Amino acid sequence: LGQINSPLKSLTIKSSGLTELPEEFSMLTGLEELNLSGNELKALPHSFSSLSRLRRLNLDANSFEEFPDL
After folding, report:
1. Contact 42/65 with Cβ under 8 angstroms?
2. CA gap 13, 38 in Å, rounded
3. Fewest CB atoms within 10 A around its CB: which of 7, 21, 23, 65?
4. CA-based radius of gyration for the chain
5. What is the DSSP string of 14-54?
6. Beta bridge partners of 58
7. Which run of H or of E encompasses 58?
């Protein structure tokens, strides 16, 4: 799929019952703010580190067991 060249800079997916994020999520390369609080995430995909513009990240109230090296 390549990178998603999108003006999307902020995304909130709060309290949505997410249990995982797809690897393709990392294609949102313009993302600066991300709120994933209140879900059921246990891990982030290793490709998450490619979100180099990400400045604010809210992961409160999830069920993390591991984090990728960022």
Report:
1. yes
2. 9
3. 7
4. 11
5. -SS------GGGGG-TT--EEE-TTS------GGGGG-TT-
6. 35
7. strand 56-58
Question: In terms of Cα–Cα distance, which of 54, 40, 48, 46 is closest to 11?
Answer: 54
CB 4, CB 29: distance < 8 Å:
yes
Name the residue with tokens 């799929």: 1
**SS3 state at 8:** coil
Residue 57 CA, distance from chain mean position: 8
Structure tokens at 27: 């294609």
The pTM assigned to this predicted structure is: 0.82
Place of tokens 């090296």: 69
